[in-house]
Amino acid sequence: MCRWTIAALAGSALAMTALPAHAAWKSYINRELGFSFMAPGEVKASVGTFRGNIAGPRQTIVYRSVDNNIEYKVTVISFIQAQAEGATILGEREYMFQDGKKVLLDTFARVEPGKDAVYGRKMVVDLPGNKGRSTGAFYFTKGRLFAFEATVPANGDLASSDPSRFVDSVVFVLSRTEPGAVELETPALE
């Protein structure tokens, strides 16, 4: 009987090591930019570029993580001098996300309750040419455009709930950030 128990435990341990390793989800915060979110694995920061017809060319701050073949990306674009154009800039970015794609979900989104509420839009789209699926949430607050995108390639788990978990984890009232959040640095823009 003891041998059967040891064999069963050894078999279970071996099976667990054969399963793919998935990174643990962590909370990340950037106090300077005023937001936090949750993502799996290590989040790396970089500087990128964005060009919109209305927004024009802009440098972006990008936070990116990849886990289980899913890319998680937060893009922050500053429009401090164009805050009055926030709704138009937000609408343009939302349109660019869904343009030429099959829209599976398009709904309003809200972060934070009451007077602290920030409204935006949440979308799920199938990428052209059966290249996968992307989930996005977009917000304009305090002079910044925030784009949260999770992309699953065609060979990934298109039914995964992780992309929604990512885009729904955003917080703009920093006192509501998960305890122990990892501080993100703000890369310097040129």
Description:
This protein has 190 residues and is of the alpha+beta class. The chain has a single domain, classed as 3-Layer(aba) Sandwich (Protein Transport Mog1p, Chain A), CATH 3.40.1000. It is built from three helices and ten strands, in the order αβββββαββββαβ. The strands form two sheets. It has a seven-stranded antiparallel sheet with strand order 3-4-5-9-8-7-6. Strands 2-1-10 form a three-stranded mixed sheet. β7 and β8 form a beta hairpin. It is globular and about 40 Å long. 25% of the residues are buried. About 9% of the residues have low confidence.
Task: Produce the secondary structure layout.
Blueprint: H1 2-18, E1 25-30, E2 35-40, E3 44-52, E4 56-67, E5 70-78, H2 86-98, E6 102-111, E7 118-126, E8 132-141, E9 144-153, H3 162-167, E10 182-183
Parallel strand pairs: 1-10
Antiparallel strand pairs: 1-2, 3-4, 4-5, 5-9, 6-7, 7-8, 8-9
CATH superfamily membership: Mog1/PsbP, alpha/beta/alpha sandwich
CATH architecture: 3-Layer(aba) Sandwich
Unreliable segments of 5+ consecutive residues:
4-20
**Anisotropy-based shape:** globular
The residue-averaged pLDDT reads: 89
Task: Fill in the CATH topology.
Answer: Protein Transport Mog1p, Chain A
Across the major sheet, the strand order is 3-4-5-9-8-7-6
Give the fraction of residues assigned to helices: 10-25%
* Integer count of domains: 1
Count of DSSP E strands?
A: 10
Quick one: biggest sheet?
7 strands, antiparallel
State the secondary-structure class.
alpha+beta
Order of helices and strands: HEEEEEHEEEEHE
Strand content: 35-45%
**Top CATH class:** Alpha Beta
Radius of gyration: 19 Å
